[in-house]
Amino acid sequence: MKELVEYIAKSIVDNPSEVKIKEVKKDQSIILELSVADEDMGKVIGKRGRIAKAIRTVVNAAATKEGKQVVVDIK
């Protein structure tokens, strides 16, 4: 899942070298904390959060297929 989020985020932003993902495991779920450069934050979130929601939807679909629960947190 971490690689999937990293690939999507790097495809969207202007500074792909600034994309960092931290994986935190809690109980039955995995939290992926995505951080990007300040000037790329708007691109990752999108208007009314549409891109962020799309990223979360794709990750949840892939996680469900593997029987996992993944949460994407954008910081």
TrEMBL record:
GO cellular component: a single term: cytoplasm
Pfam family, one: KH_KhpA-B
CDD domains named in the record: KH-II_YlqC-like
Record keywords, A-Z: Cell shape, Cell wall biogenesis/degradation, Chaperone, Cytoplasm, RNA-binding
A GO biological-process term: regulation of cell shape
A GO molecular function held by the record: RNA binding
Keyword Transmembrane: no
Xref: Gene3D superfamilies: 3.30.300.20
Main location: cytoplasm
Origin: domain of life: Bacteria
Localization annotation: Cytoplasm
Family under the similarity heading: Belongs to the KhpA RNA-binding protein family.
NCBIfam families for the chain: PRK00468.1 (NF001748)
HAMAP family the record matches: KhpA
Functional description taken from the UniProt entry: A probable RNA chaperone. Forms a complex with KhpB which binds to cellular RNA and controls its expression. Plays a role in peptidoglycan (PG) homeostasis and cell length regulation.
Subunit structure: Forms a complex with KhpB.
Protein name in UniProt: RNA-binding protein KhpA
Species of origin: Halanaerobium polyolivorans
Gene it is expressed from: khpA
